[in-house]
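Quick illustration, no need to memorize.
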Amino acid sequence: MNAFRQQKYPTDPQQRKILEEKMKHLVYKNSAIYYFNEAEADDLRLLIPYNLRQKIIMEFHNDAIQGAHLGQLKTLNKMKSRVFWPSMAVDIKEFIRSCEQCQKGKIQPGDNIPEPLAPIKVAEYPFDRLHIDIAGPLVKSNDDMKYCLVIIDAFSKFIVAVPMKNQTARTVATAFIEHVLCKHGSCNQVTTDCGRQFLSTIFQELSKIYHFSHRTTTPYHQSANGQVERQMRTIASMLRGSVSIGGEDWTELLPMVIFAYNTSIQTSTKQSPFFVMHGREARLPSDVALEIPAKLANPDVSTFVQDLVLNIQNSWRIVKENIQEAQEEQTMHADSGRQAAEKNFKIGQLVLHKINAHKAGEGHKFAPKWKGPFRIICIQRPNVMLKELAEEATPFKTHLNKIKLFHEAYVLPLRDIPTNIPDMVTTDAIDHEDDSNLEDNEENE
C-alpha cells in the first residue's frame, strides 16, 4: 500500500524487484487495490485481503439472492469477474465442498456409487438358514385374512406361505411354530427385516427356546433379505394370474400357487425345491392324467432308504455347487451393471447418513437429504457402525451405501501474492458438476 500511495519501495534491490513484479497486475484506484490482467478479462477486480475472503465467498455462495448454495463453477464464474485473490478457485472449491448445508441438501453423482455386493455364505442343507418377511395388508380374503407370512429356505429355495388375519408378534410367532418348526424342525439362523413383530420379546424368546440365531437386515437396505423379497413378488405375480377379479379368494389359491413354485426348477440350484427337500420329484395331476409312469422305488425298505439318502446327499452337493456358481455370476453382473466400487472409509472419519424417512411434518420437498455428522467406530463390510458426536449417543449399524464422507469446515490458507500471477483464476481446480444435473439425479434415485 505504501508503494502505491507514497511510492515507497524497499531499499534492498532484490526485495524491490519482487515487489514490483507483484504490482505488475495491480491497480490503485479509489483508495483500493484492483487486479487487472487483460489476458483474462477487461474488468478491474477488487483485490480482497485475507480477513475478508471467507466472508466474500459466503456472500456469493450462501446469500439467497446472490448464490443460494449453487455449485462451485457457478459461484466461481460469478466471483471472478468482480474480485480476486491468489488461488481463489481452490479456496472456492474447498469452501463449497465443506459447506454443511450443501452436503446435507444435495446428492452428488458420486454419492450414488454402490458398494460391491457381499454374497451371503451358502447354506449347508435345507432349513439351515431361513429368510422371513410379511406381505400386506392385502385384499381381505373370504376368510378375513389380510397378511401373508412368507418363509423361504436359503438352501432348497422351498417356500412356506401362511395367511394371517393380522401381523402382531404373537400371530407371527404362532404361524412360524405351526408351519415351520413343527413340520420341518428348528433351523440355525433366521433373517428378517426390522419390523416390530420380529424385534419383539416374543420372537426373541422364540429364538432362545428353539436355539436359532436371529439376524436383522440394515434398516432401509434389505438386500440381505433379498431372497424372500424377490420371491414375494413372484408369488404375487402367480396369484395375480389366478385369483378372481376382486382377489378375495387368494387364500384358497395360495397353497396351489406355492406348490407350483416348489415343484419348479430353480435357476440358482438347477433343482426343484420339492426334490431337494424330499429326494424325489412330486407327482403332478398331469402325470396321472397322461398316465406317465411313476419312478418305481425299491420294494425293500432298507434299500429304499439307502437309495434315498444317497440321492439326497448327491442333490445337496450339487445344489451347493450350483448356488455358489450362481452367486459369483450374479455378483459379477450386478457389480458391473451398477458400476459398483469399494468406498475407502476409515475408522474415525466423519460421515453423513442418508435420511430414508423424515419425521412427521419434516418430510417436505426442501428437507435435507442427509443428517449428521457421525463418526465411524467400526467397519464390517458391507455394514458400518456409526455414533453421534455426543458422548452419550448410542452406536447404530447401517450400510456403506447409506453414508458419504463429511468435509469439515475449510480454513482458508494465508497466501502471498506471487510474482507471476497471469491466468490465476481458472476453473481447473473446480469440480465441474452442474446443478441442474444434480436435480435430475435426485429425481431419479
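The first strand starts at residue 26 and ends at 29.
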